[in-house]
Amino acid sequence: MSEKPVLYHWEPNANSGKPMLALEEKGVAYDSVYIDMLEFDQHRPDYLEINPMGTIPAMVHDGHLLNESTAIMEYVDARFDGPKLRPDDAAKRWKMRWWMKYCDQYYAPSASMVAWDMFTGPAVRNKDPDELRARIEAIPLRERRIAWTKAIYGQFSEEELAESRRRVMIASALFEDNLRENDWVAGDQFSLADINAFNLVYILPHMADTMRLPSVSVERTPRTMKWLQRMYQRPSIRRTWAHSRGGMHIDIEAEANREFV
Amino acid sequence: MRTLHINGMTPPALAIAIALNEKGLAFSITQIDWRETPAAFARFSDSPEIAATLEGEFPILVDGMTAVSDSYFVLEYLDDAYPTPRLRPSDAYGQWQLQALARFFGERALPAISTLGVAQVFGGGAAVKALFENATALTSERRDAWLAAAEPTSENAIEESRRKLGLLFDRLDAMLVGGQPWLLGQDYSLSDIAAFALVHPFLDGSLDAEGLAIGEALRLWHERVLARPAVQAALTLAKPAFLPGPEHARWG
Ligand SMILES: N[C@@H](CCC(=O)N[C@@H](CS)C(=O)NCC(=O)O)C(=O)O
């Protein structure tokens, strides 16, 4: 046995939710440190010492710092005993990784841009203007600095928001198609790709109206809705969501027992 | 039967060819002229993953019944399917290092190299438009990437690409200054292969390295990788090429 990993995370969704859920699925106890993204905890000097990228999540284990949520999940599966979260077959593993990249670099960033424009920006916009300027200056990654600037000052262009919406529609359709033959994203076995996708897809049915983004619904993507139900039936979700401070505003019980007509 | 389908020796193609050679896996090459890309790519449309690639149409490796794309995942596929000789550390932390680095290569460095390569070498010009405008086998993003290559590259895009490559060279150099032979330490790995494919074009003169600081440790490492027979053999397979690659991240 080794020491417990320490996981620095925000709300149990998006990138933070990935290693949290992977640790739960693997049955690994960890020390949780909540980093409040809306208070810019992730750019404070003490956290930058832990993760110089200034992003969440980050994990410390065996004296190593790990960042990049998807790579952390693979670490969790490789490093600890417990159920296998990656297929053994090389081609299926390729498929698992392909879908994680598609989520990380296409589906999630597109949904995220819309959500940051509608929720994250407005949630911090009313802070003191000087404080906000200082916060933005303290962001180490240029890309994240641009994202925060746009969100805070409402500078996403109509064009890029429309493009992001279009991408969410395309990705959710492709995701639905992929579930035609299998119950899980990478095939017949639950894997890290399901964990990855869940952290992004779970919110979409609930945001169809508020985000004006009718991407995932019983009518449009029935297989995805059933897949979500299979996910909600896993005890790991309940345990992971218990780390939420704001509340996830979703009734797990109802999602797990949803009736499909 | 194992075939690597390429549009010339682009950086991703080079990485895969090197890995195949390192593993001693026999393969043949199918060269596809870039002008034939839409039709050639359409033949892979039964794989929804390949059809929706974010990296670019080719290279695609067909290994028996399995077709795989997205070069870093092809490297991991090869190491998963043909474990000897091992090209990844056996411990979880080493494997994490490979993947965290690969994310940076794919998300930051590869788009930057494609931008500079298209600006300096590709030269598709106006012909691109007619060939790709109605290429329905490609996603609209990939079609746009090709169509953009018909236009001159903006100063901004070049500037941003140089910035990203500066980050790449600094990061690689920092990993090597301690005197270790390979990026992850004492063992040659997929990281060396993937990084070599990105750095080599700037050291063999295919791309203009002006304004980019390439540290001494990085140069020495490049020579070490270059001297490997598997690398030499891969470099003779096809001429270097640069084509519209993955887009620059639109979101952090
Ligand atoms: N590629 C990184 C991205 C991490 C990332 O950007 N996380 C977001 C939260 S989901 C973040 O740190 N945002 C804080 C910020 O931008 O300041 C990963 O997968 O871990």
Task: Explain the overall architecture.
The complex is a heterodimer of chains A (about 260) and B (about 250). Chain A is mostly helical and about 260 residues long. Chain A has a domain at about 5-80: Glutaredoxin (3-Layer(aba) Sandwich). Chain A has 12 helices and 4 strands. Chain A has helices at about 15-25, 45-50, 70-80, 90-125, 130-135, 140-150, 160-180, 190-200, 205, 220-230, 235-240, 250-255, and strands at about 5-10, 30-35, 60, 65. A 4-stranded mixed β-sheet of chain A has the order 2-1-3-4. In chain A, helix 1 packs parallel to helix 3, helix 1 (about 15-25) packs antiparallel against helix 8 and helix 4 packs parallel to helix 8. Chain A starts with 5 loop residues before the first strand and ends in a 5-residue tail after the last helix. Chain B is an alpha+beta fold and about 250 residues long. Chain B has a single domain (about 1-250), classed as Glutathione S-transferase Yfyf (Class Pi), Chain A, domain 2, CATH 1.20.1050.130. Chain B is about 55% helix and about 5% strand. Chain B has 11 helices and 4 strands; from the N terminus they run βαβααββαααααααα. Chain B has helices spanning about 10-20, 35-40, 50, 70-80, 90-120, 125-130, 140-150, 155-175, 190-205, 215-225, 230-235, and strands at about 1-5, 30, 60-65, 65-70. In chain B, strands 2-1-3-4 form a 4-stranded mixed β-sheet, covered by helices on one side. In chain B, a hairpin with a 2-residue loop joins strand 3 (about 60-65) and strand 4 (about 65-70). In chain B, helix 1 packs parallel to helix 4, helix 1 (about 10-20) crosses helix 11 and helix 5 (about 90-120) packs parallel to helix 9. Chain B is globular. The model of chain B has no long low-confidence stretch (mean pLDDT about 95). Classes of the chains: A mainly alpha (about 260), B alpha+beta (about 250). The interface of A and B includes residues 101 and 144 of A. The structure holds glutathione. The site of glutathione has 14 residues of chain A, from helix 1 and helix 3.
